[in-house]
């Protein structure tokens, strides 16, 4: 009985983590945009990589032409758009990392908050204070 309770607790904790495959939703069209896999890197921080695009627009740029760092002119598929971020002590929030918007090439401070039992992820990108930014809700794929 103790073993099964421990396994259930571990499964619940894993679902409240940002680690996994997520579907991002376009702010304007409200349509699925891409799938991003978030994992833990060797240093214990987060890494989020674009696995595939879900857009059917042939005019969409396939490279990050507006990026200004090591990702400049690199393909968006396979690109690491989340770098860093750690779980706050006793919190279900991951902060301290950066997120890249490959559409405009800009990096933003990052806050990730699993919601709805870990089925959704609030992704907040901001400059300076968290109040100065925008939030997207991503949907867990697996």
Q: Which features does this protein show?
A:
about 140 residues, mainly beta, Lipocalin
SSE-based structural type: mainly beta
Spatial strand order of the main sheet: 1-2-3-4-6-7-8-9
Residue fraction in strands: 35-45%
Overall number of structural domains: 1
**How many strands appear in the DSSP assignment?**
9
Distance between the termini: 27 Å
Radius of gyration: 16 Å
Helix and strand string, N-terminal first?
A: HEEEEEEEEE
CATH architecture: Beta Barrel
Q: Helical region count?
A: 1
Tertiary shape: globular
Could you tell me the CATH topology label.
Answer: Lipocalin
Mean pLDDT: 88
Question: Could you list the spans in which at least 5 consecutive residues all have pLDDT below 50?
Answer: 1-13
Largest β sheet strand count, sense and barrel closure: 8 strands, antiparallel, barrel
Q: Please write the CATH class name.
A: Mainly Beta
Could you estimate the helical fraction of the residues in percent? under 10%
């Amino acid at each position: 009985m103790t073993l099964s309770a421990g396994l259930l607790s571990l499964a619940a904790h894993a679902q409240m983590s940002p680690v996994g495959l997520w579907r991002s939703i376009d702010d304007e069209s409200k349509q699925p945009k891409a799938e991003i896999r978030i994992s833990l890197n060797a240093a214990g921080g987060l890494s989020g990589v674009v696995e595939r695009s879900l857009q059917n627009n042939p005019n969409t740029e396939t490279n990050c032409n507006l990026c200004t760092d090591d990702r400049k002119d690199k393909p968006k598929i396979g690109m690491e758009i989340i770098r860093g971020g750690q779980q706050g002590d006793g919190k279900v929030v991951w902060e301290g990392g950066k997120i890249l918007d490959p559409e405009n090439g800009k990096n933003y401070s990052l806050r990730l908050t699993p919601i709805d039992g870990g089925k959704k992820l609030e992704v907040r990108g901001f400059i300076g204070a968290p109040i100065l930014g925008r939030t997207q809700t991503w949907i867990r794929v697996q």
